[in-house]
Design goal:
Layout (H helix, E strand, L loop, with lengths): L5 E3 L10 E3 L13 E5 L2 E5 L7 E6 L9 E2 L9 E4 L6 E6 L2
Antiparallel strand pairs: 1-2, 3-4, 4-7, 5-6, 5-8
């Protein structure tokens, strides 16, 4: 799976808008799949522990990389439970070799 982000400083719908596609410095293989299930007011995240250990991070917005906070203290094995709230709208797994 490849995920990219496109950024544009031009107004939406403008012809010949200038767009930049994000670069990725270190692709990783996730096997089998990351599984996310809602349980009450939590998200339960699981993944294959043989893949790697990850730091789970949360953020209210994705546009400011400096505002991602660690939900876990360093790389951890799964499962991880993340409370769902107004300040936690995005969750990511950060791989640190």
């Amino acid at each position: 799976m490849t995920v990219t982000a496109n950024y544009s400083v031009s107004p939406a719908g403008m012809a010949w808008a200038k767009t930049t596609t994000s670069d990725f410095s270190m692709p990783i293989t996730v096997r089998p799949l990351i599984k996310v299930a809602k349980s009450g007011s939590n998200l339960n995240i699981t993944w294959d522990p043989a893949t790697a250990l990850y730091t789970v991070q949360t953020n209210a917005v994705v546009t400011n990389a400096a505002t991602w906070g660690n939900h876990t203290a360093g790389n951890v094995a799964q499962p991880v439970s993340v409370p769902i709230g107004t300040g936690t709208r995005f969750v990511r797994l950060k791989y640190t070799p």
